[in-house]
Amino acid sequence: MIQFEYHNPARIIFGCGKVGAVGGLAQTYGHKALVVTSGSSQRTGLLPRVLALLGQAGVEQVVFDKVKANPLTTMVQEGAALAKREQCDLVIGLGGGSAMDAAKAVAFLAINDGDVTEYMFGAKQGTGALPVILITTTAGTGSEGNNIAVLTNPDSNDKKGLKSPFMYAKASIVDPELLMTLPKRSIAGPGLDALFHAMEAYVAKRSNPMSEMIALEAISLSAQYLPQVYAEPENIEAWEKVALANTLGGMAIDAAGTTLPHGLEHPVSGLLNAPHGEGLAALFVPIMKFTYRAVPAKYARIAGAMGESIAGLSVEKAAVKSIEAMETLLRRLNMTPKLGDFGVREENIDWLADNALKIMKANIENNPRVPTRDEIKEIYKNSL
Ligand SMILES: [Fe+2]
Q1: To the nearest whole number, what is the mean pLDDT of the chain?
Q2: Which of 18, 46, 48, 159 lies 20 to 30 A from 133 at CA?
Q3: What is the 184 CA–ligand 1 centroid distance (Å)?
Q4: Are strands 132-136 and 148-152 parallel, antiparallel or unpaired?
Q5: Predicted local confidence at residue 167, as pLDDT
Q6: Rounded CA gap, 372 and 340, in Å?
């Protein structure tokens, strides 16, 4: 029996040059925008360009440029206070996943008082959010396609998603031209994050026919075109496909959630500020090996989507091909880190396992095979 609900109201405006639409879009949703971004958008010239477009459209602007990788709860509360003080009626997130997640959280907290952690852990639900426009400059989190903002509490190192039906962007601009100047490391790590979103969503217990269709297309596009943009960053047709895969990956986890890789990675980047996609890359193959026998037919389809020849193979053998395909892809992207590269030591493993089970329990239980605490420790050890 098939039963599911699917709802994703994010308005996606996709195409080269579409960043030029930001002024008109902003006019539709507000008069005074808080632009949430990091320092790099000033250096690349994108922030001045967006501010000029907003100015031409008669939209006032306030800039909040304190976003850093793995955005903090304290930082978004500071941004929300600024939005309230300046009486902004619109939030624009400009940048990668961190800037977009921060923008969504700022828009939510500008309406909902109190400590953000109460909303993250479900003690409070919230009643609304300021309208949000997102402009993505990386292909990674797919934040433009969902209502999730991942935040880290600097007091506890807890890293967790704030998710609210009010946090879908009113409009998300996905302009592949903006991705073309990314440094190689910002192509491979975030690009893999997008692929991992799609793969986790595809095998997730909470997946449904819609999310599976979206996820499988994202897997296919990422596996084929991520190595292409890595080798030829000027290939705009390949960038279009990678950008599309990224947004689809974000939409897939919106519906189905992430699973064990994100469940075990968040504690690593929460504790040691590891780059999210790279932390996932260190954990992903050991977790595929742990998981694939629970849903071999799904892993067999992943192998096929990644371009492996699976005709005539048993389901089990075809499923193993997905692991081989992943190992090959990681090597092609020079992305074969170990957790030790981010400072993880054997003595951290108990804390990581406990934190994963405390903070990321729902993601871990969304995995087709749910590990015990000892099995989680074993996966961390195998990834050191
Ligand atoms: Fe992610």
Answers
A1: 96
A2: 159
A3: 18
A4: unpaired
A5: 97
A6: 23
Q: Cα of 284 to ligand 1 centre, how many Å?
A: 12
Q: CATH 3.40.50.1970 in the chain: give the residue spans.
A: 12-179
The pLDDT value recorded for residue 183 is 85
* Interval between CA 346 and ligand 1 midpoint (Å): 24
In the structure, ligand 1 is a single-atom ion and the residues with CB under 5 Å from it are 193
CA of 197 to the centre of ligand 1 (A): 6
pLDDT grade, residue 290 (50/70/90)?
A: very high
Q: In the chain, which residues fall in CATH 1.20.1090.10?
A: 184-382
Q: Which CATH architecture has domain 12-179?
A: 3-Layer(aba) Sandwich (3.40)
What's the CA-to-centroid distance between 250 and ligand 1, angstroms?
A: 9
Interhelix angle 373-382/349-359, nearest 10 degrees: 130
Q: What is the largest CA-CA distance in the chain?
A: 65
Name the amino acid, one letter, at 175: D
pLDDT tens digits, 354-365: 999 999 999 999
Using a 10 angstrom Cβ sphere, with 0-12 exposed, 13-18 middle and 19 or more buried, the burial of residue 297 is exposed
Residue identified by tokens 């690009």 is 191
Residue 287's closest CA among 187, 205, 368, 190? 368
CA of 52 to the centre of ligand 1 (A): 32
Q: What is the DSSP string of 158-180?
A: -EEEEE-GGGS-SEEEE-GGGGT
Q: How far is the CA of 317 from the centre of ligand 1 (A)?
A: 28
Q: Which CATH architecture has domain 184-382?
A: Up-down Bundle (1.20)
Rounded to an integer, the average pLDDT of 278-297 is 98
- Residue 144: DSSP 8-state: G
- Separation of CA 28 and ligand 1 centre (Å): 31
